[in-house]
Structure formats: structure tokens, C-alpha cells
Amino acid sequence: MTLTDTEQTDATGLAASADLEWGAFTESGPWHLLDGSLHWQHGIAHIRDRARAEVPVLTKPGRLPNIARMTSVTVRFGWAVAAWWVRKRFNRFESAEASRADLSRRLRLAIERLGATYIKLAQIISSGDGLFPAELVGEFKRCRDQVPAEPFSVIRATIEQDFGRPLDEVFSRIDERALAAASIAQVHEATLLDGTEVVIKVQRPSVASLVRTDLRVMSWLAPHLVGRIPVAALANPPALVELFAETIVEELDFRLEAANMIDVARVLRDLNQDGYVVPRPHPTLVTRRTLVMQRMEGFKFDDVNGMQSAGIDTEAVIRTGMIAFMEGALIHGIFHGDLHGGNLFVLADGRTALLDFGITARLDDERRRAFLRLMMTATTNDVLGQMAALRDLGALPFDTDLKAVVHDLRLDEAPVDPTTLTGEEMVAEVQRVVKALLSYGARLPKELMLYVKNMVFLDGAISQLAPDLDLLAEVANISMLFAQRHGERLMTEIGIDAARLQVDLDSVKVGLGVDLATERLTYRELQQRREIIQRRMKAHVDRTRRTRAV
Q: Any idea of the CA torsion for 473, 475, 477, 481, to the nearest 10 degrees?
């Protein structure tokens, strides 16, 4: 593929407002996109369907994978777990946290030696604060920025092969040092021939074939890890491999990522979400392995002091994020599936730029409506309605007795403030709920897991950007705003009359573990309650371990 003088003129010669009518982009873009005429979008639905069709083949259990790779993976992980087990036997009085930290460190080292696929898996887990053990998440965060970059000669060869001409016929300058290096690709700053500053994302060589080989190995190993080690027991290895396959296979084609950028930008504009912007992919410089996009700069998402010094309202940044994220999922069924600090930053005008669209969740219309019912029944404290919505999302088998689930989980009883329980009582309650869910065949569908993972990230972001935000008031305000904006859709799709909608925060309070009489709750106060619960559970676990050791 080449970039001719005519293509450059066509790409940049449109009116300044042309793509702002349908996409959430910056006003001063280096080029403007002509909707529907991007050549790399042709056949994109077929490319996406083909990628999805690979998943059941790659994750089919029982298929014997590449023997050499399987041996390497088994030896690496086996040695890590064996060394941890031996150390644990000789340190019987070691705390549970220290033991998990040691195992997490050994797993991280094994993953780094195994390369791109396993590093990518670690990166996904690292953004799952609250979904995975804290020690594992903390250790795996080191995989985000410790991936060695490919030599520039390799990167040059990939770009020239994809664009069909020497580098200096496309770019006047390219920084040979990687701006960032991840598991699948690395990013370089560059300048086009017309002086436009851009960013180039280039796929690592042979990563596509390595990923497919590794997925077969993971699928073969996953069933053998169930219940074998604490981390695996919590993570549900087969489900995690399936989720991983669904996300990473699409990441291997950058045309899909560029299309995701366009679709999310379109959704944000349709929702009039002016607080978010998406970098423009280049009109012509997009291939399976190379993606050129608009270069944008701003504050890192955790740079609270920098933002506040620049006069940016950090509470507004959080509020906009919660609303845009929820609306994208519930109204259009599309949302960024991998929010973390490295994938978004705040512009000088207070808007947030979204980056890295390799993992983008897409709900078909039936599941989107189920998701919509789940959120609305939560705001009205309709417990049975929530269970029905979860069933329709695929979290429960279709023939599940929903009333029995409500009864067994004691959702029809008055909630108990967890801070009034002892450590033993809290652990017993968690075990009871997990056992009941497993007995009904509960699972966490991909889109729901990504949504929860993003909510966990936003939860952590609130602690930094808006610790004194009244969470209960925000939930009530967002719910009513949503009803006002989308009342007609609520009636048409799920039969809820927005004019009569009464927000009942009891279910929210139960989820947060606070007394139903609570009228105001800041994140700072919520975090204090969480620390009490964590200390009590830790004390119980430590006492149990000491008793068993004796």
C-alpha cells in the first residue's frame, strides 16, 4: 500500500468540521475522516467474524498442542509452582499475603520468559484489581512497561513491507526508540512527509503464529489447573483462557482496532459525550500489522496535582467517565474493554482521550437489552429482575430457577452490614455465596467481565481524582439523568416508564456493604469500611493457618 500525493490531499483537504458531525474527535485534527470511504474498513465485518470463529477452535480442550511449546510452558510454570510449594512447606508460619506474593512473583518471572502471549495475559489480569488477588495484580502490573522493544531494523522491515515502499517515502522522521513496548506491538513517534506528527503502532514479528500456538497450549493446560493452586482456583483457568482468546485474536489485526476507534467515536458523538475524544486513525495508513494514528498529548490519568494546577475539575473527569462508559454499553452495546491508567489521559481542556482499542466489547442487541434491564432493575432494587437479566446475559443457565437463586443467596432477606461480622463470619459468608453460585452453574460472560473490570478501574480512579465524591448521590443523579435522556428507549425496549422511575438505592447500599439508613457516603468513607473488612478477614485467615500448622 502506498500514500500518493492525491491521497494526502484527499485525506486532509476536507472541511474542518466534516468528521466532527459523526465522531468524537478533536477540532484541530491533522486530517479528517470521510465516513464510509476508508478502504481499510472494507470487509471489516467479515474480518471480525473470521477472528471470532477461530476462538472455539483454538480453545477446544483435549487437542494436543505443539509438544515443544507445551513442554516449555509446563516446565516454566511447573518449576515456579514447585519452588513456591517447597518454600511454603519450610515457612509454615508465613502469612497468606506473603505466600501469595511469592507465588505471584514466580509466576511473573515465568511469564516474562515465555514471551508475548503470556505477558499479554498478565497485562489483562493486572487491570483486574478486585477480581484477582491483590498480590497477583500488583506483580503483574510490572509486565505493562517491562517488555523489551524489538530492534528498529525489525520494525522498519514490517512497516516497509506493509506500506510497500521505503520508510522515507512515507515519513520524514521516525524515532527509532520505542515510545512504549507492549506484548503484541510497540509504538513509535513519527512525522509524515507533510509535517504531521503521528504515532505508529507496529506488531511484533511472528506474534500472530505464536499467540495461536500458545492458545492451544493454554487450552490444554487450563483444565488441569482448576483447584490446583490458589490463584488458579480464583481465576477459573478455562474461562480465563476463553476470555483471553476472544480478546487477543481480534487484537492481532490492527484494521479491527482502527474500526473500533471509529465506532467508539461515533457512539460518543451520538450520545453527545463531549468529555471524551478518540485519536483519528489515518485514512490510508492502516494494515493488519501497522496502524498510524493522530498524536495527542495530555496529563496522565493519575496526575491529580498536574490537572488541578491546570484548573481541571477532576470530579467532572470521573463523572463524565462513569456516564459515558455506562451509556455506551447500555444504549449502543459498545464500550472500551480495557480501561487502565496507560490507556487514557486528560487533555488541557479537561476532556479525556481514550487510547488502545484492541479490546473493545460489543453486545448484540439481545444481550444489550439484558444489560439494560440489569442496570435498571438494580436502580429500582428489583432482585428477581436482576437475576433474570443475568440469566439472559449468559451468567446463569437458561433453565435456572431464579426464585431459588434469590432464596439460596438470601437476597430476599434484610442485608447484613459486613463491618458487624467477625472475620470467621465474613469468610463463611463468602464461601456460602460462592458455593451456591457454582451449584447453579454461574459464569462470568466476557462482556460482563470487561464491564466489571472497567468499573473496578473507575472505583480506583475515584480514590485518586475524587475521594470526597458522594457515591450515593452520584448513582442517583446518573440514574435519573439516564432516564431523562433515554426514557423513550427504556419504554420501548424494556417496558420501563421513565416518568415513573423511582431510584431505590437499597441495592446499591447492599453492594457497597453499608447500612440501608446511610444517606451519604464518600469514597474515602467507603475505603475505611473496606479496610476494616480486610483486616478482619486477614486476621481470620492467619489464625486458621497457625492452627493448621500446629
A: 180
d(CA 163, CA 167): 9
Domain boundary among 251, 266, 283: 251
Using CA atoms, how far apart are residues 55 and 242, in angstroms rounded to an integer? 7
pLDDT exceeds cutoff 60 at 549: no
Rg (CA), the chain: 24
Highest mean pLDDT (candidates 295-309, 328-342, 461-475, 533-547)? 295-309
Residue 245 sits in the same domain as residue 371: no
Residue 86, φ and ψ in degrees, nearest 5: -65, -45
Structure confidence by residue, pLDDT tens digits, 418-445: 777 776 776 677 767 767 777 788 877 8
* Distance in angstroms (rounded) separating the CA atoms of residues 106 and 113: 11
Phi/psi at 282 (5° precision): -70, 145
239 and 101 housed in the same domain: yes
When divided into structural domains, the chain yields a total of 2
Q: Does residue 89 fall inside a structural domain? A: yes
125-140 in b/e form (b: 16+ CB < 10 A) is bbbbbebbbebbbebb
Look up the domain containing 523 and give its range.
Answer: 365-396+414-424+441-549
pLDDT averaged over the chain? 84
Length of the chain: 550
Would residue 223 count as lying in a domain? yes
Rounded mean pLDDT, 21-43: 87
Instruction: Kindly state whether residue 347 falls inside one of the protein's structural domains.
Output: no
Q: Would you say residue 344 has pLDDT above 90?
A: no
Residues 6+ apart with CB under 8 A from 269: 20, 21, 22, 23, 24
Within a domain: residue 418? Answer: yes
Residues 236, 438: Cα–Cα separation, whole Å = 11
Distance CA 414, CA 515 (A): 10
The pLDDT tens digits of the residues spanning 141-162 come to 888 766 788 999 999 999 999 9
Cα–Cα distance, 268 to 249 (Å, whole number): 25
Do 180 and 123 form a contact (C-beta atoms < 8 A)?
Answer: no
